[in-house]
Design brief:
Structural class: alpha+beta
Number of helices: 13
Largest sheet: 8 strands, mixed
Number of strands: 18
Number of domains: 2
CATH class of the largest domain: Alpha Beta
CATH superfamily of the largest domain: Bira Bifunctional Protein, Domain 2
């Protein structure tokens, strides 16, 4: 008999004579001649109730089942005689696949997020984290669906790289050199003897590679893990995280902002349409303003505001910010949330940032002081997208690299693309975990990624 998932059973309009489900015991309670077992197989927020009677050959063992045990149940799907569910399974056979000990850590009580991070291998079995990671799966599918429907090509960009896209140097080194006996040349590590013959790192972005394909295939996107060796323990930062990075040929900054706004709205709508039960859990128990926030985002026209104007608004706000604000400063989360939650009360797209705080590849504006960069800020989170129109003029980008002390030889292939049929193009990065935080109301990035990688933590 083929196994049926609980989410399928719960959608039935009439009973089934024979079903087989496999899952884990959430609870068990006994009456004189029956046991009521709540089973969950991860496919749904809801459990299904199994009625096992004393006529079953292994009924004595069934009465010993503990939370966390794995079972396979065959039976008949029948209308439930109790409240709270439409269907229940009247068992004809309960096979015990694995009995969990009494020390199983997920008992029927509320556990803190901090505790659940210490058992990240088990936390998906809780209602909250099961819902979070089902939504993560739906959102990942929605990303690919969105871009495919619009003619984008999916590009697999390298995880290992010799280039620092952001120019900040906060990268993880990858080496096969013997760390106990590193070859030295001129008092420095001799990476010519390393696997790739030069320094190699985990990538912080697939952007530079995606640009090359945008200049060949048109509109492309990459969606995968990125890494940043930033020693930050904030609720919004992790060392390993996923990025959605579209790149569009023949696209200026305005078109880039249009796509970013449309993408966010579409992804949120997708979750609202396809994961209503899981979303309702977060709206009820995690953030009671969640649905109002999401409705506001999908129905609002995002405010577009030059960076210079945003700084002026913050300076005149009368707010006492922890971090000072002024032209040339990188806005902090408190500034971003003030703009979205108090000033305009909806998402904001800031654009035309000072060149001094942005990477080398962003297009220099005519004022020679700012670049065609944009950030999308949303309530509760702050920055969720960062992007720009890319600098397509060879002489300008070379001058920027020289001013920043970058070695042009490392980027020879990137610069060469500006010689052979260069065109205006643009793109952005959308932090997938921050999107999940927005959609679920979860406030810590560690709780929207299965096994978080943060400073001092690489368990699991």
């Amino acid at each position: 008999m083929q196994r049926t998932k609980i989410n399928v059973l719960l959608d039935q309009e009439s009973g089934l004579d024979a079903v087989l489900i496999k899952g884990w015991v959430r609870t068990r309670r006994d009456s004189k001649s029956f046991s009521f077992i709540e089973i969950n197989d991860g496919s749904s927020l809801k459990n299904i109730q199994v009625i096992a009677d004393d006529g079953l050959a292994n009924y004595d063992d069934i009465r010993k089942l503990t939370t966390g045990s794995a079972v396979a149940v065959q039976g008949v799907l029948a209308p439930s005689k109790g409240g709270g569910q439409q269907w229940e399974i009247q068992a004809t056979d309960v096979a015990i696949i694995s009995a969990a000990p009494e020390t199983y850590p997920l008992q029927k009580k509320r556990h803190t997020d901090e505790f659940l991070r210490t058992i990240a291998h088990l936390r998906p079995r809780t209602n909250k984290y099961g819902a979070a990671f089902r939504i993560r799966s739906e959102l990942a599918y929605a990303v690919h669906h969105y871009f495919r429907e619009r003619g984008f090509r999916y590009i697999h960009t390298p995880i290992l790289t010799g280039s620092d896209c952001e120019g900040a140097g906060e990268m993880f080194r990858v080496t096969t050199l013997n760390l106990a006996d590193i070859p030295i040349n001129d008092k420095q590590a001799d990476y010519s003897q390393d696997f790739f013959g030069k320094e190699a790192n985990l990538t912080v972005s697939g952007q530079l590679s995606a640009e090359m394909f945008a200049l060949s295939l048109g509109d492309v996107y990459t969606f995968g893990p990125t890494f940043r060796a930033e020693n930050s323990n904030t609720r919004r930062h992790a060392a390993e995280f996923w990025m959605i990075e579209p790149e569009m040929a023949f696209c200026d900054l305005a078109g880039n902002m249009d796509l970013g706004e449309d993408l966010i709205k579409n992804l949120i709508r997708f979750v609202m349409d396809h994961s209503p039960d899981d979303l309702a859990l977060f709206a009820r128990f995690v953030d009671k303003t969640l649905m109002a926030t999401l409705d506001n985002i999908v129905t609002s026209e995002f405010e577009r505001l030059p960076y210079r104007d945003a700084v002026a608004i913050l300076e005149k706000s009368g707010q006492s910010f922890k971090f000072p604000v002024g032209f040339g400063c990188d806005l902090q989360t408190e500034h971003e949330r003030y703009l979205t939650e108090q000033h305009v009360k909806k998402p904001v797209i800031l654009y035309d940032y000072p060149a001094s705080i942005k990477p080398f590849y962003m297009r220099v504006n005519d004022d020679q002081e700012t670049v065609a960069a944009m950030d999308i800020l949303v309530p509760s989170i702050g920055e969720i997208i960062g992007g720009s129109q890319r600098e397509e003029r060879l002489e300008v980008i070379e001058a920027r690299m020289e001013a920043m002390g970058m070695e042009k030889e490392t980027y020879w292939w990137y610069l060469e693309s500006r010689q052979f049929g260069t065109v205006p193009h643009s793109g952005f990065g959308l932090g997938f975990e921050r999107l999940l935080m927005l959609v679920t109301g979860i406030s810590n990035i560690r709780d929207v990624i299965p096994f978080p990688r943060t400073p001092g933590s690489i368990d699991f």
